[in-house]
Every structure is written in structure tokens, then in C-alpha cells.
Design goal:
Elements (H helix, E strand, L loop, with lengths): L2 E6 L6 H10 L3 E7 L8 H4 L9 E2 L2 H4 L6 E4 L6 H10 L3 E4 L6 H13 L3 E4 L5 H14 L5 E7 L9 H13 L20 E3 L5 E7 L5 E9 L2 E8 L8 H11 L4 E4 L7
Parallel strand pairs: 1-2, 1-4, 2-3, 4-5, 5-6, 6-12, 7-9
Antiparallel strand pairs: 7-10, 8-9, 10-11
The structure holds NADPH dihydro-nicotinamide-adenine-dinucleotide phosphate and ligand LZUJQKHR.
Ligand LZUJQKHR binds next to helix 7.
Length: 268
């Protein structure tokens, strides 16, 4: 079966890496593309590639008027949830790369997907080394309950924390034991400097830095008396590392019902 894929955010940093990658797969075809500024243009031409016969739509609703199986979203944090729910209600499976959503949003998306008998795979980071970072951090959290997350991104990133840090903190909060840190409510001075708690229960403190020069780096810091462990991922300047994980999710999502969160759930 050929998987017909709609790429929402086709002209963006990740989308423009995904479009030729999808076209190069023997079991996939690009069935639609969404981006406002290139609306009406041939998608290949809009990316400086040979024409591919897919006309860019201004909205996902427009792209959903044509047949497709999977919608991939790499758009913006303020667009992704509505896109995902619209795709689900149109009976499409969804792969979510866009950041900005948390556990409550994903619970809603999961319920909608189950209601429509479609699958959703979402990952804050589709790169293999970021996924390993999450896996190693979750292993460490079983032994070391005191952990905090530092989230480094560019000065212009519109959301905080990043998708990478949010998924990591929410997952860490689910497995780690009781922190020995003084509760933030009992801290004097400027308690906000202790970061924000992300995740269930008392959460995991996340500290988001936004500075020119960073793409995305994420650190889980674990502390025990007289020793520390740092597990860190650094993203580079190309979108290439996200392509293979997103293609894997496109293949897997057609046999999923409801939400699967994290690329780590798809790899052994
Ligand atoms: N999960 C992962 O592994 C990764 C996640 N990300 C996340 O993915 C998201 C996208 O990142 P990136 O590719 O850098 O973003 P870009 O800003 O480079 O691209 C965004 C794309 O979405 C389109 N878009 C934006 N707003 C709308 C809208 N309202 N309607 C339709 N299309 C829209 C843009 O086109 P136009 O403006 O013309 O509409 C563009 O094509 C971010 O949240 C980022 O954090 C990034 C890398 C990896
Ligand atoms: O906005 C970005 O650039 C990135 N965002 C993703 C996130 O929010 O975690 C990750 C990616 O490495 C780059």
C-alpha cells in the first residue's frame, strides 16, 4: 500500500527536508502540502526542486479535501492542535513534530483519535540521539530521584519549554522518586528563578534559556550527595536528524489507534 502523506508546514525548516524524503520512499507519496506564503504554487517549485505536481494549500482544511492517509505537522505551536484535531475528525492518521503541546492537550488528542479510530504519533524530538537521551535519562531517574532539566533554544523560539524538554520532563515526573529539593513554595528571594514544574505530581523543574546561537539543547541533571550526572543532547543546524524518525512514524501510525507519545515508544 502507498501511504498518501500531507505535509503541513511544507516550506519550513523541517518541512522542506521532509518533502523530498517522502517522495523518495517507495511506499509513500506526497498527496498534499500546506504553507500560507507558497499557497497556489507547485510544492517542488516552491522549494527550489523540480515540480512534483502537488499544489501548496493555504490551509489544512483545503488539503484535506483531497484523499490522503497521514497528516504530518511541522507548523507552529499555535496551529498544531487545531490541525491535529481537524485531521483526526477527517479520518486521517497524524504525526506531530510541532512543539507546544503538553499532557492535557495530548489527552484530548488521544480521546479524539480513539473516537475516530485513527492513530497519532507525537514526539518532541524525532532525532535518534535525542530519543536516546530521553531513554538514558528515564533509566537514570529510576535510581536518582533528584533531577532538573535545562532547555536551551534560540532567542526567537516562540514556545517554552521546547517540545523536547516538555516530553522529557513529563516522562521523568512519571518515573522519578521524591525529590529532596526544598519545595519552591518555601524558597525565599525570587522563587521563579527555580524554574517551572512540568509534569504530573510535583513535576520536574525546567529552566528554559533563550539565547542567540542555540538551536536546541536539552540537559537532564541528576544529583546525589557528592556526585552528579549530566545527560545532554545538542541539535545541529540542519533538519536532517528528524527525517528518519518522522518517516518511521508515518509508517507506524497507520496501524496505531489513539496516541503514542515519544519516538522511544517505537524503537527497541
Ligand atoms: N519533533 C521534532 O523532532 C522537531 C520539532 N520541531 C518543531 O517543529 C515546529 C516547526 O519547526 P520549523 O520547521 O523550524 O518551523 P518553520 O517556522 O521553519 O516552518 C513552519 C512551517 O509552517 C507553516 N505555517 C506556519 N503557520 C501556519 C499556518 N497558520 N497555517 C499553515 N501553515 C503554517 C510555515 O509556512 P507559512 O508561514 O508560509 O504558512 C512553514 O512552512 C516547531 O514547533 C519546532 O519546535 C522542529 C524540529 C524537530
Ligand atoms: O524550534 C526548534 O528549532 C526545535 N524545536 C524542537 C523542540 O521544540 O523540542 C526540537 C528541535 O531540535 C529544534
Amino acid at each position: 500500500m502507498t501511504i498518501k502523506v500531507v505535509m503541513a508546514g511544507a516550506t519550513g525548516w523541517v518541512g522542506r527536508a521532509m518533502v523530498p524524503a517522502i517522495a523518495a520512499q517507495g511506499d509513500m507519496m506526497l498527496a498534499g502540502a500546506v504553507a500560507r506564503n507558497a499557497a497556489g504554487q507547485d510544492c517542488g517549485g516552491a522549494l527550489g526542486l523540480p515540480p512534483n505536481g502537488v499544489t501548496v494549500s493555504a490551509t489544512l482544511a483545503e488539503a484535506l479535501a483531497l484523499p490522503s492517509d497521514v497528516v504530518v505537522d511541522y507548523t507552529k505551536p499555535d496551529v498544531v492542535k487545531a490541525n491535529a484535531l481537524a485531521a483526526i475528525s477527517a479520518g486521517r492518521h497524524v504525526v506531530i513534530g510541532t512543539s507546544g503541546l503538553g499532557a492535557a492537550d495530548y489527552a484530548e488528542i488521544d480521546s479524539a483519535a480513539r473516537g475516530s479510530s485513527v492513530g497519532v504519533i507525537a514526539a518532541g524530538n524525532f532525532s535518534i540521539t535525542a530519543t536516546l537521551m530521553k531513554r538514558f535519562a528515564l533509566m537514570a531517574a529510576k535510581y536518582v530521584p533528584d533531577v532538573e532539566v535545562i532547555d536551551y533554544a534560540s532567542a526567537k523560539k516562540p514556545d517554552a519549554p521546547s517540545g523536547t524538554a516538555r516530553e522529557l520532563a513529563e516522562a521523568l515526573a512519571d518515573v522519578r522518586g521524591r525529590s529532596t529539593a526544598r519545595p519552591v513554595a518555601e524558597v525565599s528571594g525570587v522563587p521563579g528563578t527555580r524554574g517551572a514544574a512540568v509534569g504530573a505530581g510535583s513535576g520536574v523543574q525546567v529552566h528554559a534559556l533563550r539565547l542567540p546561537s542555540y538551536i536546541l539543547s536539552c540537559e537532564a541533571l541528576f544529583g546525589l550527595p557528592d556526585e552528579r550526572l549530566t545527560i545532554r543532547h545538542d541539535a545541529g543546524s540542519s533538519a536532517a536528524p528528524y527525517v528518519a524518525g518522522t518517516l518511521l512514524a508515518i509508517r507506524r501510525v497507520t496501524s496505531v489507534k489513539g496516541l503514542v507519545r515519544g519516538l522511544d515508544a517505537l524503537i527497541d
